[in-house]
Amino acid sequence: MANAKKCTMDELLGSDVASKKVIAGDTVAGKVISVKKHEILVDLGAQGVGLVPRREASFVRNLNEGDDVTASVIEAEMDDGYVLLSLRKAVKDKGWDEIQAKLDGGETVEVTPFDANRGGLLVEYEGIRGFLPVSQLSAEHYPRVGSSDKDEILQRLNSLVGKNIRVRILDAIKKDNKLIFSEKEAIKDGLAERFAELKVGDTVKGVVTGVVDFGVFVNVDGIEGLIHISEISWERVNNPSDYVKIGDQIEAKIIAIDKERLSLSMKQLVEDPWLSEVENLKKGSKVEGTVTRITPFGAFVQISPAVEALVHVSELGEGSDVDPEKVFTLNERKSFKVLDIDKEGRKISLSIAK
């Protein structure tokens, strides 16, 4: 049966067949002769008849008789006389050429993640699988959660699977099969224009994208902003999640701008209650307060909702070996005397009232 096939091909190709032989690694063009479940036959003209094997038949869908195809030669001549072809390799080779052109031109392309892991998103472009690392995601998509919340990071990344994302090719090395994308690079030019429009003191609107121990991350029209825990409220903040949650729309004031991020403040959009509350205090006056913290250098006392003052260890007795924990009890309420009020430094010093 193999000999019969070979004779048929020789008749088709005529005397030129010997001078038109292909070699492994060549890229050839042809026309589909037949599409079967287990193989695809391709007319290569004077170069013979090519066979695409079963393992690649499922890779090439919607292929019909008469279609023009480009393939890579895997084996120049098999026992039955066919040229063994790979359409997958040809697609990949063409894909790498396209990828290199996009990389060289700095073009933006669109990818759709098909899977995720804690390191980032798995994508495919032009038949080549690549990777979009977490570090290269935009402020809108970056999974800003606590470093220990690994399950939540993966959950946030999985929510991006199946969504179209505009990216640039960051690195492409064919021999290593390495293809890395960046969403940050794709939006960089637009962000530069938006940064130029902003200035310190502006009030901006944004969406909370992450709540961590040290503050709140906010997406401001594609620009990442951070509200440090000290800028969330005028009162002492122990847990930022008590004030905002992911997805909240908030307003904040720009207090600093660098090339990649905005420093924001929520508290500076409202009047500082500390200033109004200290107006009722006078040096030498007596106040009531609750001990909120005890440290080696003294105790902090809450004397009004927005005002916390310090009783320094030097006010607890002679010598430097006085232990504040032996003088105070956490949450106890006592009488104190105002020693000093520093409005610029927002500090109030107390001593124990006698």
How does this model look, in words?
This protein folds into four domains: 89 residues, Nucleic acid-binding proteins (OB fold (Dihydrolipoamide Acetyltransferase, E2P), Beta Barrel), CATH 2.40.50; 81 residues, OB fold (Dihydrolipoamide Acetyltransferase, E2P) (Beta Barrel), CATH 2.40.50; 71 residues, OB fold (Dihydrolipoamide Acetyltransferase, E2P) (Beta Barrel); 80 residues, OB fold (Dihydrolipoamide Acetyltransferase, E2P), CATH 2.40.50. It is built from seven helices and 21 strands. It is 19% helix and 39% strand. The strands form five sheets. Strands 1-2-3-5-4 form a five-stranded mixed barrel. Strands 12-13-14-16-15 form a five-stranded mixed barrel. It has a five-stranded mixed beta barrel with strand order 17-18-19-21-20. With 354 residues, the chain is α+β, with helices and mostly antiparallel strands. The N terminus is likely disordered.
